[in-house]
Specification:
Layout lengths: L2 H32 L14 H67 L2 E2 L15 E2 H14 L5 H5 L2 H22 L5 H16 L1 H4 L9 E3 L4 E3 L3 H19 L1
Antiparallel strand pairs: 1-2, 3-4
């Protein structure tokens, strides 16, 4: 319960105490005051004394009781509202905690995918060739993209079916989704996970593509080797989407 709610409840209790301190003595003194033969009005000869006292004190007691009931209800309502706000805050905090765990799991998945990525060649018929040097991590990703531009001559559909290309596509989709979700979230410390994610992209996936970005990402005809070069359309779109998010964040 926050301090403002406590102050309101304490104020209501204080008001109730004041009314009790005034009302109880007034109820006790009223019969004495109003049954004396002095003053502007004389109530000493108004019939049975019990009826007189009851008639005099009843309005005061009823009003006092009504006020106290009102204050009690008011304090109860404020306490219930405060409890409801506390439950809602706890629910919000729990949702943020869950979202934070999900985003951290996505980041761990992205980093693990890059760390464990292995590559030797895009030629699926040469994957079992022991003479092919197998690279790992960002070095493997760099070599894969190098082969796109220099050695690998394949149409768009064939590239989409290549397991190494689809594996990299999966990394890019995770990265793009992660950056979008981080930006839209309200989790505490989201700048840290944003920085880590953007660094995975900029310094481990993007280096070989940097010189080609953005004009030479799509498939184009190479006059030197007389073949088409470039990236599958989906990979090209992901590179642009991710880089735009990072660039907008930096320049914001």
């Amino acid at each position: 319960m926050d301090e403002n709610k406590k102050d309101k409840i304490n104020k209501s209790l204080k008001t109730a105490k004041i009314l009790l301190l005034i009302g109880i003595p007034l109820s006790l003194l009223a019969p004495i005051i109003f049954t004396q033969p002095w003053g502007l009005m004389d109530f000493s000869n108004t019939g049975t004394i019990g009826d007189t006292i009851g008639g005099i004190t009843a309005p005061f007691i009823n009003i006092l009781g009504a006020v106290l009931v009102f204050l009690a209800l008011k304090s109860q309502i404020e306490a219930n509202l405060s409890l409801q706000e506390q439950v809602e805050r706890q629910d919000t905090d729990k949702k943020l905690e869950t979202k934070s765990k999900q985003l951290n799991q996505l980041y761990d998945n992205l980093k693990s995918s890059i760390d464990n990525f292995k590559y030797s060649t895009l030629d699926r018929w040469e994957l079992g060739n022991t003479n092919q040097k197998e690279l790992g991590g960002s070095e493997a990703i760099n070599k894969l993209f190098q082969d796109f531009y220099c050695d690998f001559h394949a149409d768009e559909e064939e590239m989409k079916c290549n397991p190494k290309i689809t594996e990299v596509m999966s990394m890019l989709e995770i990265c793009d989704s992660l950056l979008r979700q981080i930006e839209d979230s309200k989790i505490p410390g989201k700048e840290t996970i944003w920085t880590l994610t953007s660094h995975q992209f900029l310094y481990r996936i993007f280096p070989r593509i940097r010189s080609e970005y953005p004009d030479s990402l799509e498939t184009y005809y190479c006059n030197s080797c007389e073949h088409d070069h470039g990236l599958p359309e989906r990979i090209s779109e992901l590179f642009k989407s991710i880089y735009t998010k990072i660039e907008n964040k930096i320049t914001a």
